[in-house]
Amino acid sequence: MSLYHPRKAPVLDWPLTVIYYLYAALVTLVLGLWGLPQVLVRPERAQRVASVWLGQMLGAARLILGVRVEYRGTPPVGDCIVASKHQSFLDILALARACPRRAFVMKREVLRVPIMGWFARKVGCIPIDRARGKEAMKQIISGIEIARARPEGLGQLIIYPEGTRTRPGHKLPYKHGAALIQRATGLPVHPVAVNCGLFWPKRGIPIRGGTTVIEFLPPLPAGPRADEVMEALEASIESASDRLLAEAGGVRPAG
């Protein structure tokens, strides 16, 4: 079932979206070339380059598209797992902007993207090969332990429990990765609710103006079983995301 918005996208949303993506491509190229020699000399500067890029992406979204991001709750600053609802590219940008030492668990194919993939590796993003099953989880945990041993630590590891983007009001089965990582590492899990898909759709076009919300929810304690942690995580994220959807005037699909 599809989600019904309170209004359709105005005609101008289409050309403005195209302009935004052209600007984003240009900025990515320019900042990538600017940041490359810095990171080659001092790898720790990758996070600084990423912060500049994120600021440009979100600033342009505000100026060109009229998309603003409202943060609620307290973004974590220490080593932790950030488990978020995933509706569009916007929540990637907004989450990364809010977390000072961000890294993502992401499909390994993303790391092959020119410029962006190289910098993603440098900031500590951990690739995952979903076809490898349990071996993929061992690889993630190994990567986390290596990162935690560095002087700067792991930072905020962002993971999407559903594994892919969903439309507002929809959900997919939650995978157990966040709970398994928590049990193996003892890291706290911070749930995050969003309503980004109302303004920036799953497929990325057209984008319409408005204020989207990224809400950091109370962290979850470790549970005796992974399925108990995942039940609590799913309930926290889904109920808050539905609330944000209703606040913004969206309608949750029936059924």
UniProtKB/TrEMBL annotation:
List, in alphabetical order, the Gene Ontology terms for molecular function in this entry: 1-acylglycerol-3-phosphate O-acyltransferase activity
| Alphabetical list of SMART domains matching this protein | PlsC
Regions crossing the membrane: 20-41
> In terms of domain of life, where is this protein from?
Bacteria
Give GO BP annotations, semicolon-separated. Answer: phosphatidic acid biosynthetic process
Alphabetical UniProt keywords:
Acyltransferase, Membrane, Transferase, Transmembrane, Transmembrane helix
Q: Where is the Phospholipid/glycerol acyltransferase domain?
A: 80-197
- Describe which pathway this protein belongs to, using the record's wording: Lipid metabolism
SUPFAM superfamilies cross-referenced by the UniProt entry: Glycerol-3-phosphate (1)-acyltransferase
PANTHER family on file: 1-ACYL-SN-GLYCEROL-3-PHOSPHATE ACYLTRANSFERASE (PTHR10434)
Q: What is this protein called?
A: 1-acyl-sn-glycerol-3-phosphate acyltransferase
